[in-house]
């Protein structure tokens, strides 16, 4: 599970090698455009394939809560609390999973 969150580094622009701040990374990730322009050099950056896979694993991980629920008797609010905790943690960790490259990866997976 630990490998999903590694490396614990903020994304670095492949062009100018400038590190993106947590806030910038979140903002760029939530724009619908796949191309993310670097705040320091303005070049377009794309998320790497590996980094996209890691993010989808993070989403899958959140569904483990439902699986756990099948084995234990939780109250509904305990499930809600777990979900909120996982979503918040996932959100905080998202920029650390973002890896950038200069070219767009045209293969989806
Ligand atoms: Zn840059």
Automatic annotation (TrEMBL):
Keywords: Membrane, Transmembrane, Transmembrane helix. The keyword Transmembrane helix applies. InterPro entries: CxxC_20_CxxC. The chain crosses the membrane at residues 58-75, 81-98. This is Cxxc_20_cxxc protein. It comes from Viridibacillus arvi.
